[in-house]
Amino acid sequence: MDRLDAFNTIAAQASRGELAFPANVDASIKLQRALMDPDCHADVATRLIQADPLLAARTVAIANSVAYNRSGTEISSVRSAVQRLGVRTLQSLVAAVLVRQIGSRVADPVLQDYVSRLWEHTAHTAALAQVIARRVTHVDPDTALFAGIVHEVGAFYLLSRAQDFPGIMDGEPAEWIEHGEIEIGRGVLAKLMVPESVMDAVAAMWRGMRALPPENLGDTLLLADDLAPIPSPMHTRPGATTAQAARTIDFAIGDGTFDAILRESADEVESLYAVLML
């Protein structure tokens, strides 16, 4: 089976919801479904988070990050962290765990390197998207964070299936972008119950259509993706980067500039990135 046939096979399976996830993903999907329930209040969310020690630790860590701890008052309990963050941010944390679990089945060292660099790119993109949403486009920052976390989930899924399709990672990145990314990505996003607004934003990023200054969630995500200092290994060859060119992007915002906002927000971005890398 050649590479394009492999893409088509995986895409067809994904469109039918026939996805081969690691066993631990099912538990995270159930947790995500519970958190998305409109009746899920803080007490319920606290109990759900406390049941997962790793997620509990990440929840407290992100609550103490610069982005969410504006008062400088550190907290140590999951209950306090949930109250500070809210259920929407918790959904992003669970999504981060879920995405990393999908890539966890990769055993080959070369593919593991792809997974590692892809998560670094994802974490940078998510952190930048949250700050750009809050400071520039004024779309919902929690939604932007979530969108950044899931925007490459189709690529994580492809890497998790690579051992079943020898040679699928050979060839040019353009083939993945043209023949695999959209079809496989949509199927995985749908299986993970990603909201339609986020799916539309990720689709806009796939199309590469962006306004400057950015106006909506899709623009926010694409700009964050461009600015991430670690490029997606699915879009570039190892060693290649568009980050230097992306850093030249600047535009006026009120009495200031986008570059100034990024410099002012550097600690927030780094804090969020560090938590997502835990």
Provide structural commentary:
Keywords: Kinase, Transferase. With 278 residues, the chain is an all-alpha fold. The chain has a domain at 93-276: Hypothetical protein af1432 (Orthogonal Bundle), CATH 1.10.3210. It has 16 helices and two strands. Strands 1-2 form a two-stranded antiparallel sheet. α4 (53-63) crosses α5 and α8 (141-150) crosses α12. The mean pLDDT is 88.
Quick overview:
By secondary structure, this protein is mainly α. It has 16 helices and two strands. Helix 1 packs parallel to helix 11.
Give the total of beta strands. 2
Report the end-to-end length measured between terminal Cα atoms. 37 Å
Fraction of residues in β-strands:
under 5%
Largest beta-sheet details: 2 strands, antiparallel
Which spans have pLDDT < 50 for at least 5 consecutive residues?
Answer: none
Rg, rounded, reads 18 Å
Shape: globular
At the fold tier of CATH, the topology name of the domain at 93-276 is Hypothetical protein af1432
Helix count, per DSSP?
16
Helix content: 55-70%
Arrangement of strands in the largest sheet: 1-2
**H and E string:** HHHHHHHHHHHHHHEEHH
Which class of the domain at 93-276 in CATH terms?
Mainly Alpha
Structural class: mainly alpha
Q: Architecture of the domain at 93-276, according to CATH?
A: Orthogonal Bundle
* Mean pLDDT rating: 88
Keywords:
mainly alpha, Hypothetical protein af1432, 16 helices, 2 strands, globular, HDOD, Histidine kinase
How do the helices and strands line up, and which of them pair or pack?
Blueprint: H1 3-15, H2 23-36, H3 42-50, H4 53-63, H5 78-85, H6 87-103, H7 109-137, H8 141-150, H9 153-161, H10 173-179, H11 181-191, H12 196-207, H13 217-227, H14 243-246, E1 252-253, E2 256-257, H15 258-264, H16 266-276
Antiparallel strand pairs: 1-2
